[in-house]
Design brief:
The protein is mostly helical. It has nine helices and no strands. InterPro entries: TPR-like_helical_dom_sf, TPR_rpt, Ycf3.
């Protein structure tokens, strides 16, 4: 089993444009002083309104409202759709990285630190500490399903296929378009000697990412296991 797994720890970078407030300035008119001379007539002459330039023209129509800005979820769905239609492996890799960055966009700084600590522990083969760090991260942000997938990777590396499948179920319920989770599920089912379930999960991964690296070799391994052959 391959222990080296990638976790993208992209920070939540929020680019906020400063709001500009424009205050209309109205010029004050100065009153003319009363002129000296004979008294003015008692009946005041009515003021003649002066038409302003352009008043006879029709008021321009209001500009159409801007379309609503896409949510993080909408952008992730778009990336997943693009991944399924990628033309080659290089393009698929770039789209996959963009999707992973979107999945991690909402993670807080403290959670990212725990992920980093978990990764360090995993490199030292301290699976329990690595899992504890991810569990702490999930406690802080239980709504971020990608954390369950990351803990599943640790459990899978530690040989806990059942625990990995439980975590992957949480991720796939929230993000069924995650090809990495489907690929991990195929691996976990393969470790549990469930070849049909492994193949089903792997075929789903291929639907989402047809240009996945080494997919032909992995598919052959799973098919051999289904047919009762050795890896």
């Amino acid at each position: 089993m391959t222990d080296g797994r990638r976790w993208l720890m992209a920070g939540a970078v929020l680019l906020c444009s400063p709001a500009l407030t424009f205050l209309p300035v109205q010029a004050a008119r100065a009153a003319d002083p009363a002129a000296s001379g004979p008294a003015a007539p008692s009946a005041a002459q009515p003021a003649v309104p002066v038409p302003q330039a352009g008043t006879a023209k029709a008021t321009p129509p209001a500009s159409s409202p801007r379309p609503p800005r896409k949510t993080l979820h909408d952008r992730l769905v778009d990336a997943e759709k693009a991944l399924a239609m990628a033309g080659n492996e290089k393009q698929a890799g770039e789209i996959s990285e963009r999707a992973e960055a979107l999945r991690s966009r909402a993670l807080t700084g403290s959670v990212q630190m725990l992920i980093s600590d978990s990764h360090d522990a995993l490199e030292k083969h301290d699976f329990q500490q690595a899992q504890d760090d991810l569990t702490a991260a999930i406690t802080i942000q239980p709504d971020q399903s990608v954390l369950y997938r990351q803990r599943a990777a640790i459990r899978l590396a530690a040989g806990d296929s059942n625990g990995a499948i439980a975590d992957l179920g949480v991720e796939l319920q929230a993000d069924p378009g995650d090809p990495t989770a489907w690929g991990m599920l195929a691996e976990a089912e393969h470790e549990r000697h469930e070849p049909e379930a492994a193949l089903k999960a792997f075929h789903q991964m291929l639907l989402l990412n047809p240009k996945s690296p080494d997919s032909d070799k992995q598919l052959k391994t799973l098919e051999q296991a289904r047919d009762g052959q050795q890896d």
